[in-house]
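Q: Sequence in, structure out?
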Amino acid sequence: MTEAFFFQRRSGLSLREIVALTDAEPQRGAELERRITGIAALDRAASGDICFLDSAKFADQASGCTAGACLTTERLAHVLPGRVSVLCARAPYRAFVEVSRTLYPEALHPSSLFEAQGVAAGALVHPTARLESGVTIDPGAMIGPRAEIGAGTVIGSGAVVGPNVHIGRDCAIGPGVSIIHALIGDRVIVHPGCRIGQDGFGYLMGAAGHRKVPQIGRVIIQDDVEIGANTTIDRGAMSDTVIGEGTKIDNLVQIAHNVLIGRHCVLASQTGISGSAVIGDNVMTGGQVGIADHLTIGAGAALGAKAGVMHDAPAGARWVGAPAKPVRQFFREVAALERLARPSGARKSAAESEEGS
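A: Exactly. Output:
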C-alpha cells in the first residue's frame, strides 16, 4: 500500500512568487525559478519543500537541512548550508504561514468529503429551504424548513441545519454538526461534531425537583469565526448568545446561554464559559479555563491554562491560578508558600542569607 497523503500537491510556487508573496529578501545564490510544491519541518524538508528557521536553538538541525528553500532571519542565515535557497524575512514563521496557505488552501476548512457538487443524492433538503447557487450538500445532511444557506457554503455529511437557520456565504459546516436557532455570518468554519443552538442549562431549583426554564433566545455567530470540533454553544435564554467577528474557538469548548464574546478572541480547548458572561474583544484563554456566570472579562485580557475566574477581570489583565489572580501576585504567593514549606533550619539559613546580602 502506498503512503497516503491527503492534501494534493499542486504545481506549486516559484521562489520568485514566494518573495513577492512574503516580501522576503532572497540571499545570494537563491534559485528564484526553483519551484516549491510542499512544506515541511526543518529536519524533514526535501528539495521541493520550504521550511523556516526562527530560533538559534535549531541551528544544529539547520546545518543538515536539505530543503529547497528556507525562510529565516538575517541573523540566522549563515547556519544554513549553501545548497538551500535562503529567503530572509522579518517574521519567518508568519511568512511561512502565508506560503502554506497558498500551497494548501483546501487545508484551511472542511470540504465536501464526498467530493460533491451541488446537492448530492441522499441529502434531504426541505422544499421551503432557500439555497443560493454554489451551495454543496453532502449525502446524509438535512436542511430544515425555511433555512437559508449562502453561495459557496459546504454542508458536510450528517450535518443538521434546523428550521429558519440562516448560514452565510463561503462557510464550511463539517460532518455531524447540528445547528438550530442560529444565525451565522459569512466565511464561518464549523468543524465536525459541533452543537450550536441547543437549549442552555437553566433550571428553577427546588427540593421536590428542578423546573426546566424555557430557553427562547438565539445564537448569533458573526463573520470569520472558526469553531473547533465537538464544541458546544447554547442558545440564549431570553437574549442571544453572540460570538464576535473573527473569534477562533478550539475543540471541546463549552459556551453557555447568553454569553457575549467579543471580536478576535482566542479560546483554547476545554475552556468553559458560564451563562451571561461578557468577554471583551481580543481576549485569550488557555486550556481548561473556567469562567463563572455573569462575569465581565475586559478587552485584551489573557487567562492562563486552568485559570478559575471567580470575579471580573479588567482590560489587559494577565491572570493565572484558581481562583485566578494577577500573574505577579500568583507567583509571589507560590514563592511564599515554598519558603513556608522548607524545614525550619533551611528557612532560618535562607533568612540569614537574605539579611547578609
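The longest helix spans residues 327-341.
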